[in-house]
From TrEMBL:
Organism: Gilvimarinus japonicus
Highest rank taxon of the organism: Bacteria
Keyword Heme: no
Record domain RNA polymerase sigma factor 70 region 4 type: where: 117-168
InterPro entries: RNA_pol_sigma-70-like, RNA_pol_sigma-70_dom, RNA_pol_sigma70_ECF_CS, RNA_pol_sigma70_r2, RNA_pol_sigma70_r4_t2, RNA_pol_sigma_r2, RNA_pol_sigma_r3/r4-like, WH-like_DNA-bd_sf
Protein's name in the database: RNA polymerase sigma factor
Span of domain RNA polymerase sigma-70 region: 24-90
NCBIfam families on file: sigma70-ECF
Pfam families named in the record: Sigma70_r2 (PF04542), Sigma70_r4_2 (PF08281)
Record-stated family: Belongs to the sigma-70 factor family. ECF subfamily.
PANTHER family: RNA POLYMERASE ECF-TYPE SIGMA FACTO, RNA POLYMERASE SIGMA FACTOR
Amino acid sequence: MELGDEVLIERAVKGRDRHAYSQLVLRYQSRLRQALRQQCGGDHALADDIAQDAFIKAYHALAGFKRQSAFFTWLYQIARNSLMSHYRRNIPTPDSELVEHSQAQLVSEGPALNGRDLDRAMVQLSAPQREALHLTYRLGYSNEEAAQLMQLPLGTIKSHVLRGKTKLKTILHDWQQEVCNERG
């Protein structure tokens, strides 16, 4: 019989049962790592590091978990905050000329659009748009669940999804036109 999250949390907090917490880790580690991989631009090592850090932070903060949301939602917020802190510490401000040059190279790199083009196009979205689309389309969360995970109002999530989809369509259409023009 599989124990529920509430029981495992209770055992981990009150009984200091590390085995109970390890059951939570086993239950959610793949899901958390998958959710983080898109946010990390496909950097699996970074996603794994952030996930591990999130589980450690969650373990130490478990007694303060108020159960106002699902355990995974709370855990995801910890991971997301860790990732944002990582980016704030480690990513320099981009040089706008270099960004424009890199984007031009992306467009002219391949003769045909493929599955990787979507990932490359996603990079051009704002971080909130990318995260909202990833949560709703790739991970299958509803807009309401994405709003809770991102701690944003529902209307804001809907705007991020709509604007992100519109921008992706434009980017991919432009790339497709470029490919057709190169062939013609």
